[in-house]
Amino acid sequence: MSFIWPPVLSAVLLVPLGVLLYRAIEGRRRRRAAALGGLGLAPAGRRRAQGIRTRIPLLLFLAAFTILTVALARPQAAVPLPRAEGTVILAFDVSASMTADDLKPSRMDAAKAAAKAFVGRQPAGVVIGIVAFSDAGISVLVPSNDQAAVSAAIDRLTPGHGTSLGQGILAALNAVAQAESDTPADYYSNRSPAPSPSATPVPPGSHGSAVIVLLSDGENNEQPDPLAIAQTAADRGIRIDTVAVGSAAGTTLDLNGFKVHTQLDAATLQAVARITDGTYYAAADATQLHAIYEHLDTRLVVKSEQIEVTALFAGASILLLVAGGATSLAWLGRLP
């Protein structure tokens, strides 16, 4: 258990002072009772019964104030909570060709806008991770249900160099595996181990609780072969929905003095989607990305979360205060 305001716990030291004060007051009461007893006004048996009964309300009040002090420190506890959860990995092509402006204001800006619109429509049970790839794949944000953090990570994406669709898919597969594992989340890089090829293949698309959304112009000029890696994803049942960002006519880029013509490779993106039982979206249909969630089967998971339990301690202290007050009034005709 942890506390949001741990210094408040020092107030527990006031409890012994309260006990000393109570004993002083009670001693004065006993001396008065003894004086009355000497006059024959208070039977000895009654005095003993009252002595026993005075301790029970006192103990209830002491326990109540101690628990109330703990409540004021705002305790937190790790509580296992079940929730429906799905995993979406947004894999962004950040190669130099994504700076092309055949989609206004640029391919990358169009991809960012589509992704942020998708993120904003997702319920809290969907965790979203961000993977960026050019000639290598690297995770920018571990899967999270913090939509503000996801949108901020998308905004931070900047263009790189070459394009390796295969590395991007591998990084996304690693992100899915991490999101669904019981080990603590961490950052990933192109050094992350590739999914083991020895795993028993399952039907494509059968892993319904996770999906990879690949936003790219489809141009690939680096190893490994993206279709071979797509088959790895298919064997794991993970669907890849591809979003084509660019135009068939393309445009010419000036890269450090070199003229490079770049155009959409729709065929590769369609093949990746087909192999993995995913869906291919053209740039004009990017606003339809919300349909991805409609095909995302959430899974029931149990994860420990830090929950503030102040209300439980406060409720217990109130009950003890009421019990102490009731017993004191019933047995002694007064509060302690």
Q: Helix tally?
A: 9
Main beta sheet strand tally, sense and closure: 8 strands, mixed
Overall radius of gyration: 33 Å
Q: How much of the sequence is in beta strands?
A: 15-25%
**Helices and strands: which structural class?**
alpha/beta
| Strand runs, count | 10
Rounded to the nearest angstrom, the distance between the terminal CA atoms is 32 Å
- Low-pLDDT parts are 44-49, 183-197
Which shape, going by the Cα principal axes?
rod-shaped
Oligomer: single chain
Determine the mean pLDDT.
Answer: 77
Task: Describe the secondary structure blueprint for this structure.
Blueprint: E1 2-3, H1 14-38, H2 44-72, E2 75-93, H3 107-120, E3 126-133, E4 137-144, H4 147-155, H5 165-179, E5 210-216, H6 226-235, E6 239-244, E7 251-255, E8 258-262, H7 266-275, E9 280-281, H8 291-294, E10 299-308, H9 310-332
Parallel strand pairs: 2-3, 2-5, 5-6, 6-9
Antiparallel strand pairs: 1-2, 2-10, 3-4, 7-8
Helix pairs in contact: 1-2, 2-9, 3-4, 5-6, 6-7
